[in-house]
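Narrative of activities, Objective 1.

The group set out to show that a structural description can be obtained from nothing but a protein's sequence at a throughput compatible with the screening campaign. Below is one input-output pair from the validation batch, recorded exactly as produced.
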Amino acid sequence: MNEIKIALHMHTRYSDGNASHSELTHIAAKAGLDGIITTDHNIWVQGIEGYYGEGKNRVMLMVGEEVHDRTLDPPGNHMLAIGAQKELSPFGQDPQRLIDQIQRNDGLSFIAHPIEDPLERFGELAYGWRNWEVQRFTGIELWNHMSEFKSVSSTLTSAAINALFPARMTLGPLERTLILWDDLIATRKRKIVAVGGVDAHELVKKFGPFRVKLYPYLHHFKSITTHLLIPKPLTGSFPEDRRMVMDALRAGHGWVAYDLPALTDGFRFLADNDDGTFIMGDQVKIKRGLTLQIRMPQKANCRLIKDGKVIKHWENREVATHITTEPGVYRAEALIPFKRQLRGWIFSNPIYAWG
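Output recorded for this entry:
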């Protein structure tokens, strides 16, 4: 399998961002990304997908949409629609119909910032998901960079520090979102894919004669990424490569990463049995037993989660293994010290082991 790294959930000047699509691909190349997926609010920008740049600076641009119901008060129910290739905002008032439309057009539906806190001191509302009766969505945004800012910036001082020194803020997905993800898989009894979203806008604030960029795109793109495993290297043919990205996202063949402290390139969470080797997102039969292996690009603390509970924990390891005969949903997490704190580093999609 070949590994690529993308950033998704970002906004351009077509909604409330501060860059064009082509400018974002240039920034993504600086960050070492293979691709980006833009998702402007309630608008799908047609006809600009493709490759931008040349050689090592070549970046794939895919265009999705962040659809929400404008009539809700308070607001919420934001859905990332990826790959449907049509305008979907007319379906925003009916989340199930929206999901069905995305699926009918061979797209992917990810619930954006499913749990979010308000930032009351600054008049920022919570835009979490409220309609949990919906079915057949692809997955959830496990880690949203800007939602995390709301959760850890309860005071004016903390908000200022987090805005000016964003690397000090990032700790990991909300624990409530991790619990929600595990519970959704358990209760729905199906695959629910996790992605990481930067939710990038590059806010520009004026302080007297000075203009300050808060959470610039480059910082976002070096931070919360989604790594995908695809069957062969990117070819340079956009239709073929787009199809591989869509297939990997749909299958959950990857992990959510915080690449700023140390690159997560090369991480693997694998399962081996008599039928061969399986990767994140795969479904596998236990049969006579299953060997789970976590491989990290450098020594870190890691843990193995089964059905939402930590069953093994290792410290300062590059490789960890666990042999089991128990069916369940297994996923891996890794944490790394950075700026004097232990921070979330890697959150794998599960391997679904059935009896």
